[in-house]
Design a protein that fits this description.
The complex is a heterodimer of chains A (504) and B (338).
Chain A (H helix, E strand, L loop, with lengths): L9 E12 L2 E12 L3 E5 L6 H8 L7 E6 L2 E3 L3 H6 L2 E4 L11 H13 L6 H14 L15 H14 L4 E5 L7 H16 L3 E5 L3 H7 L2 E6 L2 E7 L5 H9 L20 E8 L3 E8 L4 E6 L5 H8 L7 E6 L2 E3 L4 H6 L2 E4 L3 H5 L6 H6 L7 E2 L2 E2 L1 H14 L16 H13 L5 E5 L7 H16 L3 E6 L2 H7 L2 E6 L2 E7 L5 H9 L5
Parallel strand pairs in A: 3-8, 3-9, 6-7, 7-8, 13-20, 13-21, 16-19, 19-20
Antiparallel strand pairs in A: 1-2, 1-4, 4-5, 9-10, 11-12, 11-14, 14-15, 17-18, 21-22
Helix pairs in contact in A: 3-4, 3-5, 4-5
Chain B lengths: L2 H6 L2 H19 L6 H26 L7 H19 L5 H25 L4 H20 L9 H8 L1 E6 L5 E5 L2 H17 L1 H11 L1 H6 L4 H27 L11 H10 L11 H20 L5 H32 L5
Antiparallel strand pairs in B: 1-2
Classes of the chains: A alpha/beta (504), B mainly alpha (338).
Chain lengths: 504, 338
């Protein structure tokens, strides 16, 4: 393999990439190189700037400064030119066409890239079959992609890149949705292609895979390259440390110990077929419980079931000592449960509406007399919430869209806190929130819990779980596989537990 | 899934079964139903809807919707007649069709610019232009029926491919304008299946974001779709004119929902990515069959609306319910965490 000084086999070079969205700096002087046949891991936590870097690489987003060049040729921000230069990005959602057949999906990229006018069915189908054969993959080429299992979609996406003679393939967390044997197969294919000189940029959180397949590592944290080098210089402890850092967000928040109270919500043997099973759970006032698991572990489905949005089909749920069965989220809200969704932008906020309306929308009846709403009361209440949660805004009437991610998240929190819930469930409370705000949101949640609210946090961010929680539950493949006291557990132990896949 | 529920899991399946059932019941009630004459009558009655539907199918396949097609057709037909009568220029009948198609393409270009160029929502734009084109037609071009159409139109309308007598002794015929439908159907089929442009339409309908990511120039494709759909609407308008042998500016508008219903029953999904020429023609044919045969059977005409309404609800709703049930079954049988 070529070393980093060797410029002969250099297929990709990104130099001094800088990018800011408004006042938020996302990337700062990032360098990244790939040689022929190199598999490089791009590691980093959520919000470290990985996805922005990939968007700049693929030409979808323009960098504020710096250059991207493929095989010595510098390209501007042009997705078509990047594809033409041999780049293929395999997105987490694969970006395939569900309505078209496997072979057409595979050959589409190259046909578009060549600027074909005629749709050459036979030759394109033949080429697609050939590509699948080269990968030693058996997938029915005439099947519509929407009917394929996830692992096959992943392979189709790779085949599409190969059919276009990709020299650089970027894979964005390619294994999150795959089983262990599917991952092994994928790794074999990556290994074989690497021998043909294809270079990979492999974005992943999963430490064992990184060590199994990568030649070198670049670690991003808060938009900077914190460390870079061949795989031999790393072990899993060093990598985890580099990714999470010993920055403020990994330190546990100080808090007073609370006497154990009677649980507000109890789940016994809760299950929903195909999603999770045998979940026992106790959520108490004054305690923060984190449920940590990977995408697809059933963590979100469990949270949605507690909020009445999905119906469990096994087990019992008790709220305040009485068995309940929620018919919908309204029942759960009446019982004093609040839910902050994973994706605040599409599920949690009315972006174009004023901050005030977003805060008071679920508690309008507090200021209603008869049919009339007292607007002044609403404004006062919103202003008080803005002050209490330290939302940085000149007033309560600007649209929520004008706020930064951290402040938007506080608006969502404020809305639910207005209802004075007895249990607050938060799904990914600090996704896309910068480090400083993250800390402040954590502090808010701790004080909320200390004032007597039960808090449950669903997350895949291990350092967040440790910083924030009193108790941590690990969810693997739909089951709670471990329970830890957050005061004594360390990140490595938790990491091992979370990525453990095939537990009985 | 059993074979019956598999057939019922697609709108075409539901439509096809309904059509068979309908034909069966009718032929039991009236043995004279199954004659070539009936078939020809049905074909003739499906002409205009069929041409419109092929244009709308392209739009639906791209994930859009076009309710302005009938207004484009009416405008193009009436404007063509005005121009031809105004300049008194002698040209073959094909010139009439080309002129009407060109006017339709121009109106479609406006749709395309608003939808593809500016990225506005397609339902809102075409609802707006439906009203705009119809209003412009009645305000600026006129509100009078043109019955004194050129001789060429009459001659064209009178020349028929097939003519025969039906069971009750009336003459039914398949006019030359059937060739227009044939031409458009073949043209759209070739475009959708054998050119990259057509495949890009399906790709955009399947996932617009994925299409953008592999470098498909979405705006350009979308503008072109609406231009072609406009041209097809222009042809439909002219076909209608030759069939009715007059230019009535109040015609056509109002049948757009029937057209869309036919396309959806033919298997195109309102969410985009699907739709075939054969399915669309089948959908049109079934809707026409229900309308015509109910009329023949002496059923009051408001029953037609009722029956077609039921067919739309069942034809589009049943596949969704079957799909949801299949997903539910799939989740239940899936091992935890797989």
């Amino acid at each position: 393999m070529a070393t980093s000084q060797d410029n002969e086999g250099r297929v990709l070079e990104m130099r001094s990439i800088r990018k800011a969205y408004g006042p938020v700096r996302v990337l700062e002087n990032v360098d990244l190189t790939l040689d022929r046949g190199e598999v490089r891991c791009l590691a980093g936590e959520n919000g470290s700037g990985k996805s922005t870097l990939i968007k700049i690489l693929s030409g979808v987003v323009t960098a504020d400064a710096g250059s991207v060049s493929f095989a010595g040729r510098t390209l501007g921000a042009d997705p078509v030119a990047a594809i033409d230069a041999g780049l293929s990005v395999i997105y987490q959602d694969f970006s395939l066409f569900p309505n078209l057949t496997v072979w057409e999906n595979i050959s589409f990229l190259s046909a578009v890239n060549r600027g074909d006018f005629v749709h050459r069915r036979l030759s394109r189908r033949g080429r697609a079959i050939e590509t699948l054969k080269r990968m030693q993959v058996e997938i029915d080429p005439d099947m519509p992609v929407e009917l394929l299992p996830v692992a096959s979609k992943q392979l189709v996406a790779i085949a599409r890149a190969l059919a276009n003679d990709a020299r650089v393939i970027v894979m964005d967390e390619p294994t999150t949705a795959l089983t262990r044997s599917e991952v092994a197969h994928l790794m074999e294919i990556v290994g074989a292609l690497k021998k043909d000189g294809v270079a990979f940029l492999f974005v992943s959180h999963k430490i064992e895979e990184v060590f199994a397949v990568c030649d070198s590592i670049t670690v991003l944290r808060d938009g900077r390259v914190v460390v870079e080098g061949p795989i031999g210089e790393f072990d899993s402890a060093r990598l985890v440390e580099a990714m999470t850092g010993r920055s403020i967000d990994s330190q546990r928040l100080p808090r007073e110990d609370m006497a154990e109270q009677t649980p507000f919500l109890v789940a016994r043997g809760l299950g929903r077929r195909g999603e999770y099973a045998d979940v026992d759970l106790e959520l108490r006032p004054g305690e923060i419980v984190s449920v940590v698991g990977l995408l697809g572990s059933g963590r979100t489905e469990l949270a949605l079931s507690l909020f009445g949005y999905l119906a469990p089909d096994a087990g019992v749920l008790e709220v305040a000592g009485r068995p309940v069965s929620f018919r919908g989220q309204n029942d759960a809200m009446d019982a004093g449960i609040a839910y902050v969704p994973e994706d605040r932008l599409t599920e949690g906020l009315f972006l174009s509406q004023p901050i005030r309306d977003n805060i008071v929308v679920s508690t309008l009846d507090k200021n209603t007399r008869g049919f009339a709403i007292n607007a002044k009361g609403l404004t006062q209440r919103a202003a008080a919430a803005v002050k209490r949660l330290r939302i940085k805004t000149p007033g309560v009437m600007p649209a929520v869209a004008t706020l930064s991610g951290g402040n938007q998240q506080r608006v969502v929190l404020a809305r639910w806190m207005e209802r004075s819930p007895k249990l607050m469930i938060l799904n990914g409370p600090t996704v896309g929130v910068d480090v400083g705000s993250k800390r402040e949101i954590h502090e808010l949640l701790v004080s909320l819990s200390r004032s007597g609210t039960a808090v449950m946090v669903v997350t895949d961010d291990i350092s967040e779980a440790i910083a924030l929680s009193d108790r941590i539950l690990v969810m693997v493949r739909g089951r709670i596989t471990g329970s830890f006291d957050a005061r004594s557990v360390d990140e490595e132990t938790l990491y091992e537990e979370v990525i453990k896949e095939d537990r009985a | 899934m059993s074979s019956v529920s598999r057939i019922l899991a697609t709108p075409q399946g539901v439509v096809f079964l309904t059509a068979l059932l309908f034909a069966l019941v009718l032929s039991l009630l009236n043995p004279a139903f199954f004659t070539p004459a009936t078939l020809i009558d049905l074909l003739r009655n499906s002409l205009v809807t069929g041409i419109f539907a092929l244009g709308v199918m392209m739009v639906l396949a791209s994930g859009g919707i076009d309710v302005s097609c009938t207004a484009i057709g009416a405008f193009a037909m009436y404007a063509t007649m005005k121009i031809i009568l105004g300049i008194d220029f002698d040209m073959p009948i094909i010139g009439y069709f080309l002129l009407s198609a060109a006017i339709g393409a121009g109106l479609g270009l406006l749709n395309g610019i608003l939808i593809g160029g500016l990225g506005l929502p397609t339902l809102i734009v075409t609802l707006g232009t439906l009203s705009l084109y119809r209003g412009a037609l009645l305000t600026f071009l006129g509100t009078t029926y043109i019955t004194a159409v050129p001789r060429k139109v009459i001659t064209f309308a009178r020349s028929v491919l097939v003519r025969m007598e039906n069971a009750v002794g009336q003459m039914v015929s398949l006019p030359y304008s059937f060739l227009v439908l044939l031409f458009v159907a073949i043209g759209v089929a070739v475009l959708m299946n054998f050119t990259m442009f057509g495949r890009k339409i399906y790709a955009i309908g399947g996932s617009e974001e994925a299409a953008a990511r592999i470098g498909i120039r979405i705006r350009r494709v979308k503008v072109l779709i609406y231009v072609i759909a406009g041209a097809i609407a222009g042809l439909a308008g002219m076909t209608h004119l030759t069939l009715s042998r007059m230019a009535n500016p109040f015609d056509l508008v109002g049948m757009e929902l029937n057209v869309i219903a036919a396309v959806v029953l033919g298997g195109a999904r309102i969410t985009g990515g699907h739709g075939t020429v054969v399915g669309t023609l089948l959908g049109v044919f079934v809707i026409t069959m229900i309308n015509t045969t109910l009329l023949m059977a002496g059923v009051p005409s408001y029953w037609q609306k009722f029956v077609i309404g039921c067919l739309i609800v069942v034809g589009t709703g049943l596949p969704i319910l079957i799909d949801r049930f299949a997903r539910h079954r799939e989740r239940i049988s899936r091992p935890i965490g797989a």
